[in-house]
Design a protein that fits this description.
With 266 residues, the chain is α/β, with parallel strands linked by helices. Helix content is 35%, strand content 21%.
């Protein structure tokens, strides 16, 4: 069975993406790694996101194709298990993964499951054009229901914007906000048409999310690919202290109780 990973990458050094580390991880896992988005324009239409993801899916020649954002990682200890899980579910349309979201390297939130792996060989008409972001997998124009596909018991490690500076985040949020506004006619989660409004809206979202980052993790528990980069974070980058939130935001008590009751740790 051939497995492809496809990802997008645009000016990764300038945008401070962990691209070298991510590609090392993907190449260790997959039989093929496909990269699209190198020519992503500064100003773009919102549906360009899904079209770029879909381009990667179309270019993937594996039996299964896995979409990975450039800040998504597999843990090296999970790789064989994930491959075995795909083989065991080879008749399924797709596979979902739980996601560990990090803003600082010492704690995370276990987020909702995401549909990332699709069975391209048996369902060649799958597209990445659904959902609110127009980039989730569909078959015959119907969104694949993440609750009706197998869930792989190995998490995606998501480092979000941890390696970016405030200036880069401001620019990115405003840029994507303009694309959203032009397409949908409102600013939505992006705040408004200034760097300050865009950053403030995003930072409020981060603050609300960070309260739910109640799972602890030590430096040597992270995937080996990213450990060095995490150790080199500086005060200008989000992942250093979450721009001060690490010292002011307390963990959500309800989330902690839920964790203890459910004994939830994936």
């Amino acid at each position: 069975m051939k497995i492809s990973i496809h990802t997008t990458m645009t000016n990764p050094e300038e945008r401070m993406d962990p691209w070298k580390e991510a590609l090392e991880c993907y190449n260790d896992f997959a039989d093929e790694v496909v990269v699209t988005g190198e020519d992503w324009p500064e100003e773009f239409s919102w549906d360009h996101i899904g079209k770029t993801f879909n381009e990667g899916l179309k270019k993937s020649t594996g039996d299964w194709a896995i979409r990975m954002d450039l800040d998504y990682f597999f843990h090296e200890k999970d790789m064989e298990y994930i491959k075995d899980f795909i083989i065991a579910n080879n008749d399924e349309i797709a596979i979902a993964f739980p996601k560990r979201q990090f803003f600082t390297s010492d704690r995370y939130q276990l987020q909702s499951k995401v549909c990332l792996a699709v069975n391209k060989k048996k369902y060649p008409k799958i597209e990445l054009n659904g959902g609110g972001d127009l980039c989730f997998p569909t078959l015959n124009k119907r969104l694949i229901n993440v609750d009706k596909i197998p869930l792989c018991n190995a998490p995606i490690w998501n480092y979000d914007m941890m390696f970016k500076t405030k200036e880069i985040i401001e620019n990115e949020r405003l840029r994507f906000g303009r694309a959203w506004f032009d397409y949908f006619g409102n600013w939505g989660i992006f705040g408004g048409n200034s760097k300050e409004e865009a950053f403030e809206a995003w930072f409020k979202w981060v603050e609300d999310k960070y309260k739910k980052h109640v799972f602890n993790v030590s430096p040597n528990e992270h995937p080996k690919y990213i450990q060095k980069k995490l150790s080199e974070l500086n005060e200008d980058q989000l992942g250093f202290e979450c721009f001060g939130l690490k010292h002011t935001v307390k963990k959500d008590t309800i989330e902690i109780i839920k964790r203890k009751i459910l004994k939830l740790k994936i």
